[in-house]
Design goal:
4 helices; alpha/beta; globular; three-stranded parallel beta sheet
Length: 80
């Protein structure tokens, strides 16, 4: 049951208690970003994994994050 399948989304919703508009999903893969977008969450891409600027430039709308980070230490400045 891989991300971002419908079954995974249903499992995620059942397992986690969250408000989509008040939640952020941070990922280092395009599938992570697509999952967060499909769940209605704000999404952030970390450029320390599979994702880089080239991949983001060629991504489809559903795979496009709301923001990008060079690494997780930059997350604090973005979220706070």
């Amino acid at each position: 049951v891989g991300k971002p399948s419908e079954k995974f989304q249903d499992t995620f919703r059942d397992y986690f208690s969250f408000l989509p508009t008040s939640s952020v999903l941070i990922g280092d893969r395009v599938n992570d970003i697509e999952l967060g977008n499909r769940l209605g969450m704000t999404t952030g891409a970390v450029m320390s994994g599979e994702i880089d600027r080239e991949i983001l430039a060629s991504s489809e709308d559903i795979e496009t994050p709301d923001f990008g980070l060079s690494n997780l230490t930059r997350l604090r400045k973005k979220v706070l």
